[in-house]
Design goal:
The protein has a six-stranded parallel sheet, with helices on both faces. The protein has a three-stranded antiparallel sheet with strand order 7-8-9, covered by helices on one side. It has two domains: about 180 residues, Rossmann fold; about 100 residues, 2-Layer Sandwich (Pantoate--beta-alanine Ligase, Chain: A,domain 2). It starts with a helix and ends with a strand. The protein is of the alpha/beta class. The protein contains ten helices and nine strands. Helix 7 packs across helix 8. About 40% of the residues lie in helices and about 20% in strands. Bound molecules: adenosine monophosphate. Adenosine monophosphate binds next to helix 3 and strand 5.
Length: about 300
């Protein structure tokens, strides 16, 4: 009995989540959605807690979306810890877990996809072709299915937020997209389900990503460097790690268009927000991080 009371309500069928939401609506409840791929950590849980405070009911989805993984990426080995995830969610009130199977989301013959356009080809999109169209498609499906009042996303995946806001705006969805700060480990490394792939030596080098971002932030703000110096300073910090195998990008970007502004006139960005962002392969693990700063 005790055990059963502690179970979190888990729904696998899209038709049943739809019915559940209908009942919430009939009772006048507001609904928040936190889409995830599971292997939950404190970054995810901060979003869930916030939704649980701001809404009467929160749906957490766990779905490792095959559409957003490239052929040579980590779809098969992506960490899946459903029992741990449920334990973590049980601690937070008013949460329903939606955990559909691939075949329920993309049944045989499925053929409708979102093309988010050029913004999805910048930054990570350059190295993960099709990734953001896959993200946009699954998020669109989840938003249509659940029709939340609010959906919550982490700033750690900054480009994802830009893309989802664009999707919601351009498809006229009446849903508030809310964002939350990146939750970090003690040494600044952004929490990520993929950090579990790192061995102890790689884990030490992983802290260089945040170090590089903070070093550049400090020097930009005290004006000892300009945007033109950002790339080389970040790269030289990152290259001190012997397990840093590839720096895919490490630069300064317009926070709306995501265009690299390292060669732009710094005066054009005075008093404006800019994005410092990096994607780095450490060992064989691809990690990303960013800082939004005001020049
Ligand atoms: P994922 O399971 O990696 O797809 O992430 C699900 C949601 O959690 C996304 O909105 C992410 O941006 C967010 N998220 C992941 N890591 C963090 C973090 N360290 N801090 C805050 N949000 C995060």
């Amino acid at each position: 009995m005790q055990n059963q009371q502690n179970q979190i309500e888990t729904i696998r069928m899209p038709s049943i989540i739809r019915e559940t939401i209908k009942i919430f609506r009939q009772r006048g409840k507001t609904v928040g959605l936190v889409p995830t791929m599971g292997a939950l950590h404190n970054g995810h849980l901060a979003l869930v807690r916030r939704s649980s405070i701001e809404n009467d009911a929160t749906i957490v989805s766990i779905f490792v979306n095959p559409l957003q993984f490239g052929a040579n990426e980590d779809f098969a080995k992506y960490p899946r810890n459903i029992s741990d995830d449920k334990d973590k969610l049980k601690e937070i009130g008013n949460v329903v877990l939606f955990m559909p199977d691939d075949m329920l989301m993309y049944p045989k013959g499925y053929s409708t996809y979102i093309d988010i356009g050029e913004i999805g080809t910048r930054l990570c999109g350059k190295y993960r072709p099709g990734h953001f169209n896959g993200v946009a498609t699954v998020v669109c499906k989840l938003l249509n299915l659940i029709k939340p009042d609010r959906a919550y996303f982490g700033l750690k995946d900054y480009q994802q937020i830009v893309i989802i806001k664009k999707l919601v705006n351009e498809l006229n969805m009446d849903i508030d997209i809310l964002t939350a700060q990146t939750v970090r480990e003690y040494d600044g490394l952004a929490m990520s389900s993929r950090n579990a792939y790192l061995n102890s030596e790689e884990r030490k080098d992983a802290q260089l990503i945040y170090k590089a971002l903070k070093t550049v932030e400090t020097q930009l703000l005290d004006k000892s460097i300009t945007p033109a110096d950002v790339q080389s300073l970040m790269e030289s910090t990152l290259r001190t790690g012997s397990h840093v195998k590839e720096i895919q990008y490490a630069s300064i970007f317009d926070h709306e268009t995501l265009i690299d502004i390292s060669t732009s006139n710094v005066n054009n960005y005075k008093g404006k927000k800019v994005l410092l962002a990096a994607a780095v392969i450490i060992g064989s693990t691809r990690l990303i991080d960013n800082l939004l700063i005001e020049l």
